[in-house]
Amino acid sequence: MTGPRRIAVVGLGNVLMGDDAFGPYVVRMLEAEYEFLDGVTVLDLGTPGLDLTPHLSDIDALIVVDTVHSEGPPGEIRLYRRAQILKHPPGPRLSPHDPGLKEALLLAQLEGRGPRHVWLVGVIPQTTGTGIGLSVPVIQAVEGARDEVLCELERLGRAAVRRREPLEPDIWWEEHRDHTRLAWP
To answer: Which among 8, 28, 69, 9 is positioned nearest to 173, based on CA atoms?
Structure first.
């Protein structure tokens, strides 16, 4: 076997905040369409803060799928390596769709247990307000993000295998999209 032995593919985002559900959506689609080799873990982690750190400890490579704050049109995919993610110091976590990725990477590094390889597959959101469902430009980016994750796994020597019969993706929050209006105080 070549490449890293332990790889985590992680979807980050709040499924109740529109396009912020992009990370969880992509990893759920990956799980439904592909099988992964031993040592490759695929997780929907929601919106963790420093509680992301244990998921980064003792892995060799990390692939993150999330929305990103960047200039550009909604639905545009942005790719970042570890150095680009950590280029600027972490800022305050101001909203429920701000994960603690930078902080968790730095803490895992300080402990000497963080991943050497980090790849962030991000998409520019159209909306991250309260509500269920991805916008049209972001849903159109799902396939491209999936392909970026698959290419990175292949580059790391741990290619995923397409299922002969895909499973139904567990996108449970979409089931309530048209039946529930969220009211937040």
So the answer is: 28
pTM for the whole structure: 0.88
Beta carbons of 171 and 25 less than 8 angstroms apart: yes
**Domain range annotation of the chain:** 7-161
Residue showing tokens 């902080």:
103
Contact 18, 135 (CB under 8 A): yes
CA–CA distances in Å: residue 166 to residues 102, 162, 169: 34, 8, 8
Half-sphere exposure of 136 (CA within 13 A, CB side): 0
Assigned CATH class of 7-161: alpha beta
Q: DSSP strand E in 21-97: where?
A: 34-35, 40-46, 61-67, 77-81
pLDDT tens digits for range 51-78: 888 888 889 999 999 999 899 999 999 9
